[in-house]
Amino acid sequence: MSKQVSTKKRTLLFVAFGWVLLLLGDRVGDLELYQGSFVATYALAITSIILLTGYSGQLSLGQSALMAVGAYAGALTIFNAGLHPIIGLFMAALVAGVFGLILGLIAARLSGPYLAGTTLALAISLPTLANQFPILGAEEGIVFDVGLPPARFGEDFSQYKWFFWISALASLIMVWFIANLLSTKYGRTFRALRDNPIAAELSGINVGRLKVTAFAISSGVAGLSGGLLVMLISGVSPSAFPLSLSFALLGGAVVTGLYNLKGVILGGLVLVAIPEIADSLVSRIGGSEGFITTLPGFLVSALLILAVVFTPNGPGHLIKRHHKK
């Protein structure tokens, strides 16, 4: 009974939060809406890391590659097949999930640095492979237009608002799904796998199958975020999913708190705000081209160190601990 009440409460909270986002969307400009779309997209990508690393204990350094798989699947669905962008998002999640399932069958035999190294190699090699296939647009990638928003919303309904609605709604639904999943027995078995794989296996848990399941679901979530990113930048190319994106997302997950989903919006805000802060600093103090390029990465690294030192379990855990005192 308490579990059912908790699920209803969680659903009401997500619906209320979604309603607040829609109200805010009517009161801000196009630039803020566009930035908000990126926040939702990055928050979804961070969710995939929290599920895989924070709950099942599998360290992945290749989330950008999984996002790229979903991005190309969505782009081909929209550009080549000519289907609706919403269908493209479904295909992005589905294809990335299947890819993660296959990868998970390999990763189930790996752990620790071996798994991290394998996913790192994937993140490095996948863009190079994409360059070899003309159907994927080679180095230039695929450029397309997702089209105007539905006419029934009126002439004042901008495309940026349409992007924001799609991104926010897709992210909310997926985070709600993951939060509910983690509140079931699967969440408990994932944590058992993370804390002590040997004890989990001795207790009757199929560790290999559980690892594959976590990898597949996490990949599907990452693929959906990649599909959203494609929609926002109106195209996809290998350069859109560099290795640095994987590290930035992992840093955002650590800032958020690897062991809960409550702060994923904060992680998305950080990743969107860092380039803005970097541009502001560069405009004030100047610097060489190399300095301008490396500054965002340096700021993410500094924030990551501060988060590990002062809030290792995320700001939400820190607030909760002070509240108890």
Which sequence of strands runs across the widest sheet?
1-2
Bulk shape: globular
Derived from helix and strand composition plus strand pairing, the structural class reads mainly alpha
Percent helix: over 70%
Count of β-strands: 2
How many individual helices?
13
Overall pLDDT confidence = 81
Count of domain modules: 1
- Taken as a percent bin, the fraction of beta residues is under 5%
Unreliable spans are none
Order of helices and strands: HHHHHEHHHHEHHHH
User: Major β-sheet, in short?
Assistant: 2 strands, antiparallel
Distance between the termini: 30 Å
Radius of gyration: 20 Å
Topology record:
Layout: H1 2-25, H2 30-55, H3 63-79, H4 85-107, H5 112-130, E1 142-143, H6 159-182, H7 185-195, H8 197-202, H9 207-233, E2 235-236, H10 243-256, H11 264-285, H12 289-310, H13 315-324
Antiparallel strand pairs: 1-2
Helix pairs in contact: 1-6, 2-6, 2-9, 2-10, 2-11, 3-4, 3-5, 3-9, 4-9, 6-9, 10-11, 10-12, 11-12
